[in-house]
Amino acid sequence: MDEKYRTLVQTLTNQKKTIATMESCTGGGVANQITNIEGASEILKFSAVTYSNEYKIKMGVSKEIIDQYSVYSQETADEMSRHISEFAHSDYGIGITGKLNRVDKENPFGADNVVFISIFDRAKEICYHDQVEATLASRRENKELVLNKIVDHLQQILDENVL
Questions:
Q1: How far apart are CA 36 and CA 95, in angstroms?
Q2: Burial of 125 by CB count in 10 Å (0-12 exposed, 13-18 middle, 19+ buried)?
Q3: Would the CA dihedral through 163, 78, 8, 112 be positive or negative?
């Protein structure tokens, strides 16, 4: 996975693009992978781990969206990616929310093993969507699965934008 993130940081650097993340269930995993690479400070503008609904809302996610669709939804992931990009003035925003194969008594709605991913392209004003079925045995394995999916999807978006 390190090599994928190294390539991602290099691609963002070459394209003079920046990124910001608002992560929930991955606990800052994307930002961690990026900051493991030298030169990350040129492309990573800001990162927030918003584990609670309260802090998602403080970072701009609409309470009405959470109430209507649940905190575990594509709509919430889209709000996260859009607002973190706007907050940081970054070219791309990543929003991640979901359950890593567990029940959340505070938020009983939404599947217990689905992670929703949104990548917001500020220049095009669109969100790219992805989902991961988090059904592996451990949280660590599920996080790695999500982190791999994100880096692959973002790299694909960046490669397509060059064409």
A1: 20
A2: exposed
A3: negative
Return the DSSP state at 5: H
DSSP string, 29-85: HHHHHHHTSTTGGGTEEEEEE--SHHHHHHTT--HHHHHHH-SSSHHHHHHHHHHHH
Average pLDDT over residues 42-63: 95
For residue 65, give every residue at least 6 positions away whose Cβ sits within 8 Å of its Cβ, in sequence order, or none.
73, 75, 76, 79
- 5-19: b or e for each residue (b if 16 or more CB lie within 10 Å)? bbebbebbeeeebbb
Domain 2-158 has CATH 3.10.20.310: no
**Structure token pair of residue 19:** 């990124």
* pLDDT tens string 94-118: 999 998 766 666 666 666 789 999 9
**What pLDDT, in 10s, does the model give residues 147-159?**
999 999 999 999 9
